[in-house]
Amino acid sequence: MSNKPVEYLSFGGGPPSVALMILNAWGEITPKADLVVFADTGAEKGKTYELLNQYQNWPKKWDLSSLRRRRQMLLLTDETLSTP
Fold first, then answer.
1. Rounded to an integer, what is the distance from CA 44 to the centroid of its chain?
2. If you count DSSP H runs as helices and E runs as strands, how many of each does the chain have, helices first?
3. Whole-prediction pTM value?
4. Annotated domain spans of the chain
5. Tens digits of per-residue pLDDT, 46-79?
6. How far apart (Å, rounded) are the C-alpha atoms in residues 50 and 45?
7. How much is the CA Rg of the chain, to the nearest whole Å?
């Protein structure tokens, strides 16, 4: 087992994230990412999800793993705020 830390790239789905992913894959930005992570809030703009579908296979082209995590939204009420 390696003690090497996992380098990850946080992907937001917009043009700056796409540029960052491409430049990282080309070696222009270091360290080279091992993993591309998209933290899906479930409340992204429709265009973000459209673009995400277009980009979903890109990490594989550059031997990167990708991870998409979606968190369920929690409605904050007096009851949920008072729960220990």
1. 13
2. 4, 3
3. 0.66
4. 8-82
5. 888 888 887 777 777 777 777 676 765 555 555 5
6. 9
7. 16
